[in-house]
């Protein structure tokens, strides 16, 4: 699971970098600034959602391991609500 999350975050960062390269090569400085700002916001949102999803998954797995199915069910509902 760790490598999957890490891979998704690396691909997101690479997407932003390639986007900046293309706009920097063919666009204007205003376009480059807009893409840079948008990339940072998108990266922040992606990181927060990934962290929340990972935390909730760990919490659900912990409750299942402790045989506390009621708590795991509530955590699962919270995860569905968040996403």
**Distance between the ends:** 18 Å
Main sheet attributes: strand count, strand direction, barrel closure:
none
Strands, count:
0
Share in helix: over 70%
Strand content: under 5%
Secondary-structure element sequence?
Answer: HHH
Give the helix tally. 3
Shape: elongated
In round numbers, the mean pLDDT is: 82
Summarize the structure in words.
The protein has 83 residues and is an all-alpha fold. The protein has one domain. 92% of the residues lie in helices and 0% in strands. The chain is built from 3 helices and no strands. The protein has helices spanning 2-26, 29-65, 69-82. Helix 1 (2-26) runs antiparallel to helix 2 (29-65) and helix 2 runs antiparallel to helix 3 (69-82). The longest helix is centred in the middle third of the chain and has 37 residues, at 29-65. The two termini are 18 Å apart.
SSE blueprint:
Blueprint: H1 2-26, H2 29-65, H3 69-82
Short key terms for the protein model shown above:
83 residues; mainly alpha
Gist of the model:
The protein has 83 residues and is an all-alpha fold.
């Amino acid at each position: 699971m760790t490598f999957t999350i890490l891979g998704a975050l690396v691909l997101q960062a690479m997407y932003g970098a390639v986007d900046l390269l293309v706009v920097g090569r063919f666009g204007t400085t205003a376009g480059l600034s807009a893409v840079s700002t948008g990339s940072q916001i998108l990266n922040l949102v992606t990181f927060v959602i990934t962290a929340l999803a990972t935390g909730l998954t760990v919490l659900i797995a912990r409750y299942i391991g402790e045989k506390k199915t009621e708590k795991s069910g509530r955590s699962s509902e919270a995860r569905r609500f968040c996403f």
